Amino acid sequence: MSDILIIDGDAAFCQSLMAELARHNLHAAHSTTLSKGLAMLHVGEFSLVLLGDEAGSKNSLEFLSTLREVPSRPEIIVMSKSRDPDAAEAAIRGGAWNFMPKPVNTQRLMVLAERALEYHRERPAKCAPVSLRREGIVGNSRLLNSCLDIVAQAASTDVNVLITGETGTGKELFARAIHANSSRSGKPFVVVDCAALPDTLVESMLFGHERGAFTSAENRSIGLVKQADGGTLFLDEVGELPLSTQKVFLRVLEGRSFRPVGGAKEITSNFRLLAATNRDLEAMVQADTFRRDLFYRLRGIRLELSPLRDLLDDLNDLICHFVRRACKQLNIDNKGFSPDFLDTLLQYEWPGNIRELVNALDQAVVRAGTEPILYPQHLSRNIRANVARLLVAELPELENRTPPLTDGEAFPSLREYREKHMAELETWYLKNLMLVSKGEITNACRLSGLSRPRLYALLKQRGVERGS
Predict the structure, then answer these.
(1) Among residues 306, 350, 298, 279, which one has the least CA distance to residue 137?
(2) What are the Sigma-54 factor interaction domain coordinates in residue numbering (predicted)?
């Protein structure tokens, strides 16, 4: 049985590569089209895919997510004529094992193939199925489940984790889930709010102090780093740490030892580090406002949380969960909600993300009083006004694009209409973004304010080519 599948439009190249693999006792099959290759993956148990970029009209990088959903979960090595660094980065971010420009160095490819196959064989033992404790994380969308996969991965190691995402996306919740599923779950989970640390007391709060170390130090104090001994230290909003403290904390990370303020000897703390931020640390590194060496230390594993506007598939489950929780806290019967209540929440942009949703639902439950069903009127005027403004702004578009409906024709629901036209709007924006940025991803990210992974995902979702 073949362990390797080669997908490349050049049949002669496939045959040559199969012969080279055979000389290394590696058995391979091949396909010259993506569609046939996918069919072969669904009926075979391939451990590795060597993915070329000439197997049909579809860009091979766009095919990565499809390959990753195949039951055997093969490792993927991308072979491409492109020597664009952005293409290599996109391949790795998309889940590829490695990226090799053509013409392929066959000796190096053989080494990579053997390592990928070895990793694939060992992976089931390393990642035995476990029941993940969600710690209040709600939803089952593809985006959310991919984040939970990273939570499970992070929980199985002691590697530092950097959690990124907009304000209100639940960064601390995911940090707690990593801790709860780790071997340190029975030990302390200590939160350090870096944005709230007073400049004059940062080191004292982090590392503690001895009695008399400064004027108000009447007693000895154990710092937050020592309190996390054996457990997890969570640096929330790590981008707010002053540069001077970043330097000190870097030394602590390297040796897990430090000296309390006014102390004569160093003490140790065996903690696992998780950090979170809503800021672009890479941009801060470029601007010399965040230490490059500390940034590299923090991002052992990267977990990027999506904003709520990208998780609308989970919105119904989220509403059910938080309405039930609010009713329980108020000691009242659980409430249902009308379809137009859900449609209104689907229309809203949620700049405050999950945190804003929870607040909106708590208020709606209180406003509803003894009424058993929630309606849009129970939502705040701010949310309803923003949705109304959006709909009115889109009315001319609707009048221009939509022919009058005759009796009996189905008028689209608010959700259907918004999804259709939001997709058109995003496609238009992305095409113009690629035009203005000349397809340069770094420039496009700067102009749009999007992260690289988010931009790549949107380009793929809307079918926009970088050369548009």
Answers:
(1) 306
(2) 137-366
Global pTM exceeds 0.70:
no
The reply to whether omega before 351 is within 30° of 0 (cis) is no
Could you report the per-residue pLDDT of 220-232, keeping only the tens digit for each? Answer: 788 899 999 999 9
Classified by CATH at the fold level, domain 309-401 comes out as Helicase, Ruva Protein; domain 3 (1.10.8)
CA dist 18 and 49 (Å) reads 12
Residue pointed to by tokens 């490819």: 109
Convert the pLDDT of each residue in 50-91 to its tens digit: 998 765 444 666 777 778 778 788 899 999 888 888 788 888
Beta-carbon neighbour count of residue 243 at 10 Å?
A: 11
Q: What gap in Å lies between CA 355 and CA 352, rounded to an integer?
A: 6
Q: Which CATH number does the domain 4-126 belong to among 3.40.50.2300, 3.90.850.10, 3.30.300.30, 3.40.50.720?
A: 3.40.50.2300
Among residues 454, 455, 140, which one has the least CA distance to residue 313? 140
Count of all residues that appear for the chain in the document: 468
Cβ-in-10-Å burial (0-12, 13-18, 19+) of 145 comes to exposed
Candidates 300, 305, 234; CA nearest to 272 is 234
